[in-house]
Amino acid sequence: QVQLVESGGGLVQAGDSLRLSCVGSGRTFGGSAMGWFRQAPGNERAFVASINWDGRTYLADSVKGRFTISRDSAKNTVYLEMNRLKPEDTAVYYCAADRKVYSPYGPQFTDEHRYDLWGQGTQVTVSS
Q: What pLDDT digit, counting tens, does each position of 81-98 carry?
């Protein structure tokens, strides 16, 4: 069974840091673009960050300078390092993967519809 499993969420205070992990299983994800999205209560799911198989990345403007996306293909894992967290970062964070491999990379990977496989999400709550 091919799946993604997120971990690392929790309750933190504003200004704190968290690192989310997304571990893939069932196949190798090293050739796939991966992404992080988030959904706050009452809001639609929104793009946070993506990373291509070659390390190129996109970040949402709201997290630039605070969040970093990285991957360890040997571990089939993608990370989201979140620093200087704000209450408005509170959301369920989802990991996603493109089922295709070595797809041409571009801003289309900021669109959730570009991804075919999703994790179950991990809650991040930032208190003020």
A: 999 999 999 999 999 999
